[in-house]
Amino acid sequence: MAKLAFLGLGVMGYPMAGHLKTAGHEVTVFNRTPAKAEAWVAEHGGARADTPREAAQGAEFVMSCVGNDDDLRSVCLGENGAFAGMEPGSVFVDHTTVSAKVTRELYAAAEEAEIGFVDAPISGGQAGAENGVLSVMCGGDASVYDRAEPIIGAYARICRRIGDSGAGQMTKMCNQIAIAGLVQGLSEALHFAETAGLDGRAVVEVISQGAAGSWQMANRYETMLDDHFEHGFAVDWMRKDLDICLSTADETGASLPVTALVDQFYKDVQRMGGGRWDTSSLIRRLRTAD
């Protein structure tokens, strides 16, 4: 078993770190709010540290799951950053959804310090993290990934290296682009059923068995029909991710007209006070427009 550090104990990181401990690894955690780290240690054992550097000292692998580009830089770099505490030959695995730009920047900084760096964003939501069935899409050196994959397996249903540094983040952008269009389409279908006087549950029972079926439909249609949006990934975070997608599309020359439109629909949801609602709340926007 390995000596690990886990940085960031949000709705995803908290259970992910727990799976590592359950798998038998020695785990030290860091969280910006110490009370969360104390609660994790009380529940799972292990240890907590006051800084990322302290958490990373002596660790073979350091995993992170924080908020955005700036959060990731803050836990990696500087006097109290994880890189300052990591030994040559150790590996940093980042599960945060961030830009490919910051990923490549930190990959270069890690390489200079003789540290391996894998970008490994995740999909599957809070339920996927709690149940240990996340999809993990990775970028980085093949030899470093091969070392990290068995560790990541503690909370992954599938884990794949897509390519060099940044490829994991680019793949996560594909994931978010696909989800945005799916959720809007599902919202419109359910809204149409409602306005037509149909039984939404009966409609989904039938259409979910054909070409219209999707994870979003199977896992979100009931709460969408009930106008309940306290599950899964928040609108504020989705807008952060879509901003990364749209900015990167400008750089690569990709055309994302539907993604750009749905991003504005999520902006409308934020204006309605729904920034912390889950992403299926797009249907609330349609209902409000009536």
Structure characterization notes:
The chain has helices spanning 13-22, 34-44, 52-56, 69-76, 82-85, 100-112, 125-131, 142-152, 167-195, 200-207, 215-225, 235-252, 257-271, 282-289; strands at residues 3-7, 26-30, 47-48, 61-64, 91-94, 116-119, 122-123, 134-139, 156-163. Helix 6 links the parallel strand 5 (91-94) and strand 6 (116-119). The chain is globular. The chain is built from 14 helices and nine strands. Helix 9 crosses helix 12. By secondary structure, it is α/β, with parallel strands linked by helices. Strands 3-2-1-4-5-6 form a six-stranded parallel sheet, with helices on both faces.
Structure in a nutshell:
The protein has 290 residues and is α/β, with parallel strands linked by helices. The protein is built from 14 helices and nine strands.
Q: Which features does this protein show?
A:
290 residues, alpha/beta, 14 helices, 9 strands, 14% strand
Number of strands: 9
Biggest sheet details: 6 strands, parallel
Q: Strand arrangement, largest sheet?
A: 3-2-1-4-5-6
Which geometry do the CA atoms define?
Answer: globular
Rg over alpha carbons: 20 Å
Unreliable stretches: none
Tell me the number of helical segments per DSSP (H or I, 4 or more residues long).
14
* Euclidean distance between termini CA atoms: 57 Å
Could you spell the SSE succession in H and E letters?
Answer: EHEHEHEHHEHEEHEHEHHHHHH
Helix-strand category: alpha/beta
Instruction: Round the mean pLDDT to the nearest integer and report it.
Output: 97
- Strand fraction band? 5-15%
State the helical fraction. 40-55%
